[in-house]
Amino acid sequence: MPNALPPSPPAAEIVVTGAALPEARAESAYSINLISGREIESSPSHALDQLLKDVPGVQLFRRSDSHSGHPTSQGVTLRALGGNASSRALLMLDGVPQTDPFGGWVNWPAYDPLGLRQIRIVRGGGSVANGPGALAGTIEMFSRSERGLSGEVDAGSRTSAEGRAYAGIATGDGVLSLSGRAERGGGFVPITEATRGPADRHAPYRDWSARAQWNYRIAADIKLQVSADGLHDWRTRGTDFSINRTNGADGSVRLVGHGRWQWSALAYWQWRNLMSSFASVGPGRAIATRVSLQYSVPSNGVGGSFELRPPMPKNMELRIGADTRRTTGESRELYNYVAGEPKRRRFAGGVAWTAGAFAEATVDFDPVTLTGGMRIDHWQVSNGHLFEQLIATSAVLRDDRDPERGGWLPTARGGVIARLGGGFRLRAAGYLGWRMPTLNELFRPFRVGLDATAANADLAPERLFGAEAGVEYARGNVEISLTGFVNRLSDAIANVTLGAGPGNFPGVGFVPAGGTYRQRQNVDAVDVHGLEAAAQWSRGGWQLQGGLSCTHARMRSTGAAAFLDGPRPAQTPDFAATIGAGYDDAGKGAQVIVRHVSAQFEDDLNTRKLNAATTVDAFASWPLSPRLLIVARAENLMDKLVMAGINADGSIERATPRTLWIGLRLR
Fold first, then answer.
1. Peptide bond into 502 cis (omega under 30)
2. Distance, CA of 558 to CA of 438 (rounded, Å)
3. Residue 332 and residue 340: Cα distance in Å, rounded?
4. Which of left, alpha, beta for 43 (phi over 0: left; psi -120 to 50: alpha)?
5. What kind of fold does domain 25-147+234-666 have according to CATH?
6. Is the peptide bond before 367 cis (omega within 30 degrees of 0)?
7. d(CA 522, CA 519)
8. What's residue 229's pLDDT?
9. Is 407 exposed, middle or buried (0-12, 13-18, 19+ CB in 10 A)?
């Protein structure tokens, strides 16, 4: 939840030397949630995906967290646009796109929230300066860059342990920031007690990440930012043959000019490699057997951007620039296991590239502000391939080589703000956006349990049109906002059910009895309209606040997928609300957050219902000395069942049960 606790005065001067340009004036026309550094410190969870869930309307593809869920199910979206594990929101860290280059999901353990100074969530599509992909909105993370030393160690339920540290070292006119975190735990059994069998067991995890960033003033008005990151994420899914491992590294260089001509130039590189083993569980969940092994999924992302803000009259701002991103990746897989041995191998992947230019202008005619921007992008997919062969004889079963294809697509957004006085403000905005299919969606078929989903190399980019209007009130210690919106996502990519086992199906082969055959397809549209509200009151160290998201989302489809006309998109609730109360006074603090999510469906046909869930999280801290705190945290304090999935055999997967933490924090 934004601003759940007010910031405490720092004990000593803090100098932030981050290199980013100031927030663009145009952003004020859109619905924005800010998560401050103080709120991050006071969150009941140290996992970024769980922290973001406190903002109503922010939705992961599945309810599972980043310790128990499959890494490829960790996409993020907003405003009930649904998805198929690929993110429909654009996630950025210091200006660098963060989704996996091959699949579009997010490696949440790569981020330590305590290493961030702020998270900014801009709802709505059409991000002009950040590049394509922001169908549902943009989530921007900003790294800490300050002198000092901090850290924390925690012990928790099920033999869990965490440790993290941050050091900011002065280097002349700059700061070298070093941070790292590591955690491990015994995990919980993902399948509920009533539906599990002998094959089900605890799902342990362990992961670490490290980050080094150097911010340095190389001239009076020019700053340099150099960043390097590394991550390792190992987890299981609670059965034999369900280990998943992700390794990754990132690097970026950014130069920023803060003079009369403001400008920013960024170049970055990303590398990820996923290993994922998939298991099938037999009747009665008595035994698990391996069905496929992605022994390596290497992927790379390379890109850059440039933005220029020329000198303008005081009531105007102009931004112009360009950016590009090229992603490559390939899934290397063994499958069709018989008696524990693979009989076939598969290679699937390709190259995707986007490049575009943008311009955005904002003019202030007090008390009215007008803003508008647009960009044009060229997209291209090449070297698409899906190769399958028998291991024993090397006989080729499939060798699809897809022709290079591409096109041009626009992005645009515009808004108006009217300041009415007395603390009231009206705003309205409209936007166009688009998202390119990921290499995973285009070229790789996959299986989950008994279900199989075929790839589709002919997928078209998704395109969004949206509009919103809102009223805001901010006066004294009270803030209230109300926003209504409509979105239409055309050519939405969905996993479309086309058949049921037993039988052989194109692109996936044999599907057993009880299993479902699906293919990724562009359906006509997803139509969404909804209402968002937020309120906040603060006084002294006390704060109360709440937020809610009410949406009506429906699939629209004709032709072969006409049976999908009318259902709610899979994994999409129609109501979410959060209310929190907190107190903070120089480290003496407490916070309670109640979160409710309505029912949603596991599948596109709306036959597998995941019940509504209400959870309570809590945080408390007490100073032992001016710099040392004892902290206690509780996730899902009342131990409520949060259904995360329903498998073809009827077994129910759950999200995080009650988890308690106690730790020491050096600030």
1. yes
2. 24
3. 18
4. beta
5. Maltoporin; Chain A (2.40.170)
6. yes
7. 10
8. 96
9. exposed
- For the record, the structure tokens of 249 come out as 């590294």
Taking the domains of the chain in order of start, what are their residue ranges? 25-147+234-666
DSSP state string for 470-493: EEEEEETTEEEEEEEEEEEEEEEE
Please give the C-alpha separations between residue 131 and each of 39, 102, 323, 353, 410, in angstroms, as whole numbers: 28, 17, 7, 12, 11
- Could you tell me which residues come within 8 angstroms of residue 667 by beta carbon, excluding any fewer than 6 positions away? 41, 150, 587, 627, 628, 629
Q: Report the pLDDT value the prediction gives residue 18, as an integer from 0 to 100.
A: 60
Tokens of 424: 């009231």
**Per-residue DSSP letters for 43-75?**
-S---HHHHHTTSTTEEESSS--TTTS-GGG--
Distances (CA, A) of 525 to 183, 463, 478, 566, 662: 41, 9, 39, 11, 47
- CA 661 distance to own-chain centroid: 25
pLDDT (tens digit per residue) in 413-438:
999 999 999 999 999 999 999 999 99
- Say if residues 288 and 199 touch (Cβ distance below 8 Å): yes
Taking phi over 0 as left and psi of -120 to 50 as alpha, with beta for the rest, 611 belongs to beta
Q: How far apart are CA 33 and CA 10, in angstroms?
A: 23
Residue 90, classified by CB atoms within 10 Å of its CB into exposed (0-12), middle (13-18) or buried (19+), is buried
Condensed to tens digits (0 to 9), the pLDDT of residues 615-646 reads 999 999 999 999 999 999 999 999 999 999 99
Taking CA atoms, 87 is separated from 225, 580, 593, in Å, by 27, 27, 26
Whether the CB-CB separation of 656 and 636 falls below 8 Å is answered with yes
Which parts of the chain have pLDDT scores under 70? 1-19, 83-84, 449
Indicate if the alpha-carbon torsion angle 354, 73, 69, 659 is positive or negative.
positive
Position 9 scores a pLDDT of: 37
Residue 465: is it exposed, middle or buried by C-beta count within 10 angstroms (0-12/13-18/19+)?
Answer: middle
pLDDT confidence of residue 166? 95
238 and 191 in contact (C-beta within 8 Å)?
yes
**β-pair partners for 529:** 486, 552
Beta bridge partners of 372: 361, 414
- 10 Å CB burial of residue 639 (0-12, 13-18, 19+) is exposed
The backbone region for 408, taken as left when phi is positive above 0, alpha when psi lies in -120 to 50, beta otherwise, is beta
First to last CA, the chain: 22
CA separation for the pair 657, 139 (Å, rounded) = 27
DSSP string, 186-249: ----SB-TTT--TT-----EEEEEEEEEEEEEEETTEEEEEEEEEEEEEE--SSTT--EEEEEE
DSSP 359-383: EEEEEEETTEEEEEEEEEEEEEEEE
CA–CA dist 432, 275 (Å, integer) = 36
Determine the distance from the C-alpha atom of residue 287 to the mean position of all C-alpha atoms in its chain, rounded to a whole number: 33
